[in-house]
Fold this sequence. Notes:
Layout (H helix, E strand, L loop, with lengths): L26 E7 L17 H7 L3 E3 L2 E2 L5 H10 L3 H4 L21 H7 L3 E6 L7 H5 L9 E2 L3 H5 L1 H4 L2 E4 L6 E5 L13 H13 L7 E7 L7 E3 H4 L23 H8 L20 H4 L6 E2 H6 L3 H28 L6 E7 L10 E2 L6 H4 E2 L1 E4 L9 E2 L3 E2 L3 H9 L14 H5 L9 E4 L5 E4 L3 E5 L5 E5 L17 H8 L19
Parallel strand pairs: 1-8, 1-11, 2-15, 3-16, 4-5, 4-8, 7-9
Antiparallel strand pairs: 2-14, 3-13, 6-7, 10-12, 11-14, 17-18, 18-19, 19-20
Helix pairs in contact: 8-13
Amino acid sequence: LTFAAGTVLCAQGAAFASDKSEQSRPNVLLVVFDDLNDWVKPLSDAPSATPNLSAFARESAVFTQASTASPVCNPSRVALLTGVHPTVSGIYNNAQVYPRVDHWIKDARNLPQHFRDNGYIAAGYGKIFHHRHVEAYENADIWTPGYYAPWNLEKEEALPEAAEMRIEIPGLKRHFGRLPDDWDRDDPSKMQQDTLNTLSAVNFLNGAHDKPFFLALGIYRPHTHWYAARRYWDKFPREKIALAEGVKEGDLDDVPPYGRLLAYADAGDKRSPEDYADLKAMPEFAERAPFMRNLRQDYLVDHDLYKDAQRAYLASVAYADDMFGRVMAALEASGYADNTIVVVVSDHGYHLGEKEHWHKSTMWERSMRVPFMIRDVRPGRRNVRINTPVSLLDVFPTLVDMTGINAPKHDLNGVDLAPVLSGERRDRGRPVVSTLYRGFHSVRNDQYRFIRYPDGTTELYDMQKDPWEWSNLSGNDRYAPIVKELSSWVPSAEEETVGHVGDKAP
Length: 506
């Protein structure tokens, strides 16, 4: 297996792994992408360029129907790293600073802490937890001292000044662009955060460690704003960009008002869902554009920006894949490859025009479905495609089983997938429940995705026959038994949205 190795990040010689007697337990490398949907070669035929993820998939178990616990960055990451569902933790939005919340969840030992408790070095580079209020995470005693570098918002916001091409979306605080081709190569002053953090992970792998390690790398791209070097843009000529397969005009016609609210409204929009009941009566998008976070497909098309936006997203995905390839090349060149479990996930999916939406934060498959792959190093490993629906909540209990460490003291809401990886079981055993906010729930089983909103309105899609969710079946009496069955999995109890200790609001 060959992974691409960049100029700066090539290993300068093999690292020396610890003596086996001192490192009997496997290491863990967790790679978390941000906003990476299923437009990667292991999961779809989308026009992306992800050779390193594809190479990794050939040596891994690939979960083809993985869902996030929440289609929002912060709650998704808290759920992944604590193993606790949003309806139990009370973490539903990006404004909640996890180490400061007034709830027991802040004291639950998260993944890096739990591995530290079990004798591991815990190293983290980039956006792993959410990036707001970095000092709160630095003071939370999460990582082994000296082995942590957070994602840097200030350096990210400086990128547009270096761009050789910048594209603005009229009326919105949204932009993307192309960096010169000398970016992310040799000059540290011309490296994005992902490059610098990948370099830190590579340097860690090049070192000798006398303990097993839990190494987490957070790759920020393809999160907005989409800035990537020219060589990544050049992989996707504008004239060859086509409409995404799942884009369909009128896709929201059979969607309840709450669904339209998620597709169209900004988080700060104070309108009620009823204002979205009649699409023809809605105000023109341009009138609401200054308040919009979520970009509408027709707005991009009308301004001839659709191809540019898709191209920028694809360029960012290609850049992120390159970073992944570099850290994997370093792992292969080290002495750790044969004793390191590698887990690859994204925090949630992303719409590229499907459901007339460009963002996440919806209950549909485009927001929920994520890449999730595990390369196992234990004897008898199986490199297979696993089609049973699974959740990112399952990562914590699965790693506990695979590494043989003690279980945490708090209850984990996910499922141990080790028996599925070994072939002992064929499925997860129960549907996957994902939650956006209180009252916004999605249930995914082998065939259907069911959605229920706070007012009791619902959607149901046959994902085998209708993978783009074009036909809402929930009002069809023929599917009433399926609606009833999947409704039974909707959480009956939901924790309130928790605030902050001492009113330390973000």
